[in-house]
Structures
1.
Amino acid sequence: MEETNYTDGIDKLASNLQSKIDEDEAKVFSETALYEAHHPQNFGVIENPDGKAVLTGSCGDTMEMFVVVEGDRVVEVKFSTDGCGATFACGSMLSKMAKGQKTEQVLALTDEDLIERLDGLPEENLHCARLAVATLHGAVKVT
């Protein structure tokens, strides 16, 4: 009986903490950015990619981008990161933006384009967009 009460108490505390975290995130991140951070698309590694780049940002987050190019189009994009939620959101959204585009269009993407598609980012996370874009550009340039 006592162990059940202790476990119930811990579960309730964890639930309350997660609710507070969710509320705090919703105050600073857009719904789009939160969705991408919590449900990242194209996360992973491509074996034998046509292009690959790895960069570490000013905050210490590392991002890796992999691309497969057919002709002049990026047909597959994946990313990997050890970063924060904003870095995951940027990698996810940017990979979706690049997939199917001509390489010249991908190289023309800017961090402002990415931030706009995420419906904004807090000032302290703008570097995450710069990191994602620079890493993708690096991967495409080596193809």
2.
Amino acid sequence: MLSRGALAVRSAAAEFAPDVIHAHWWFPAGLLAFGSLSSKPLVTTMHGSDVRLARRSVWAPVLFRRVMARSSAVTAVSGYLASEAKSMAPGLDVAVEPMPVNVELFSPLAGAAAGPRSRDRFLFVGRLNEQKGIALLLEALAASGSGASLDVVGDGDGRAALESRARALGVAARVRWLGAQSQEQLVPLYRAATAVVIPSEGEGLGLVAVEAQLCETPVIAFRSGGLPDVVSDGATGLLTPPGDVSALAAAMDAVFTCDDRGASLGKAGRDAALARFSPNVVASHYASIYESVINDR
């Protein structure tokens, strides 16, 4: 697969004659570009799963360093991923440059069209697996004094066990399992939620947090992975120590009981997200990177 992929990249580069090859994820895209023997400048962007692969595997770090050495510029979507990459390739220069988000789709309703935000319903969006931390969120819901409900968007092999856990914790009647939803279906859920809760650890960036902020929804998350790049504690959301169920429950109660129900956090979050994740902002940054590697060549 890799050899055929490398040949396909080389053929496409010869036919299209690009000024720059931009590989998203060092594996497999960056490795394919490396193996194609193309002389074009290579920009490699790391998104998260590729960095975790490089950390877990015995052989991957060697290939990772080769791709990094071949790259004219390296970017990562969060400071956390940039730090992880540097730890595997000391001396590597990594620019933190996130990907764009659809700021037109993910937006708050304005004026008379804006419906009331729920006063007592939290929202989780993500795969139902251990890394996403939904089991910890169920425990926090049980420990919270708010009596609030929880909408769970997403599917996964762990769903049956999680539903059983909710029953054991006595919160099953307060949890709605909505399954996977399209981006369009997510928007009204973001807009209606009291807050979006992200209890995952080692998140590459946390696009769910960005989407929620663009809808002016407060975000509660663990201070882990790339989430501190998105959520400024006390300004655009609330961050708690990773894995701390009591702190997570307290943060949920804090949003639930504050005078404006987190509206000020939501508005500040949207302003911050627009400044970093708008397509025109991201495009201008990458245009500068492309221009730089072309001129260096």
